[in-house]
């Protein structure tokens, strides 16, 4: 039996008369890193927003662990273990790294408005927060304010706050966007580390990162799936080359 943690069936989204996503069928295998790629305007962000329930599908169905989550909202799916990083986990610039992660943990435990109540609960949360920071290589920055962290480290902090929610499935929207080479390497390594024991779906433009990290790649073009498989397979697919570089299939063969 296959073990798909996330499935999209005949997913579609129209904006007015424009069909931005059409009949997308996705099967995300548990424990893998699954990347969504495609040229500009291919529909990646729209599919991502559908999967994370930031947009309502015009048609189709989304299943998480075999259960229909099509009608749930982002908070409801987060409670089930589907967490979108970067948007849902706002980082507060003037709080320290530790305070940011502690706040995320308080949200998970539903104690955000009672945090002054118990000193022992606070120190328990601190221990867990430090552990999360350690997981993303930020332990030594624990007492630095978020605003003082370099860009790549801020992303790491965002991931640490997401980890506080204990996601089974983590969705990352262009995790290396706008980064220099050094930060890209750091964040890629971080994603690999946090992928242990969970599933990751990410939209990513940097094909080097995708080649390095993704077990499966779905290539979208004009709102539809063009190709799917491991990097070695999709990168040699003539239709993918044509969509990315404008090279025609017969030219590729030639
Ligand atoms: N809210 C909207 N209203 C109208 N059209 C939209 C809307 N959102 C997206 N689109 C259109 O849907 C298509 C797919 O857009 P989408 O942002 O999903 O592509 P993408 O693959 O993420 O592109 P990029 O790599 O440039 O971010 C585009 O033609 C876009 O103009």
Automatic annotation (TrEMBL):
Residues 6-247 form the ABC transporter domain. SUPFAM superfamilies: P-loop containing nucleoside triphosphate hydrolases (SSF52540). The keyword Transport applies. Gene3D superfamilies: P-loop containing nucleotide triphosphate hydrolases. This is Branched-chain amino acid transport system ATP-binding protein. Keywords: ATP-binding, Nucleotide-binding, Transport. It comes from Rhizobium halophytocola. GO terms for molecular function: ATP binding.
């Amino acid at each position: 039996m296959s073990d798909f943690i996330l499935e999209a069936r005949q997913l579609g989204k129209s904006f007015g008369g424009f069909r931005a996503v059409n009949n997308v069928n996705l099967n995300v295998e548990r424990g893998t890193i699954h990347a969504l790629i495609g040229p500009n305007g291919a529909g990646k962000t729209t599919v991502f927003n559908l999967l994370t329930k930031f947009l309502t599908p015009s048609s189709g169905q989304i299943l998480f662990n075999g259960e229909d989550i099509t009608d749930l909202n982002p908070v409801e799916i987060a409670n089930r273990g589907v967490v979108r990083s970067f948007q849902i986990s706002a980082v507060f610039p003037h709080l320290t790294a530790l305070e940011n992660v502690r706040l995320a943990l308080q949200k998970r435990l539903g104690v955000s408005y009672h945090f002054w109540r118990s000193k022992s609960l606070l120190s328990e949360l601190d221990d867990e927060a430090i552990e999360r920071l350690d997981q993303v290589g930020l332990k030594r920055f624990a007492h630095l304010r978020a605003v003082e962290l370099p860009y790549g480290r801020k992303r790491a902090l965002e991931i640490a706050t997401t980890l506080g929610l204990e996601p089974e499935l983590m969705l990352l929207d262009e995790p290396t966007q706008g980064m220099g080479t050094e930060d890209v390497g750091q964040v890629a390594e971080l994603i690999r580390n946090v992928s242990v024991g969970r599933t990751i779906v990410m939209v990513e433009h940097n094909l080097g990162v995708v080649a390095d990290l993704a077990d499966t790649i779905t290539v979208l073009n004009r709102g539809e799936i063009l190709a799917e498989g491991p990097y070695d397979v999709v990168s040699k697919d003539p239709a993918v080359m044509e969509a990315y570089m404008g090279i025609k299939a017969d030219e590729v063969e030639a």
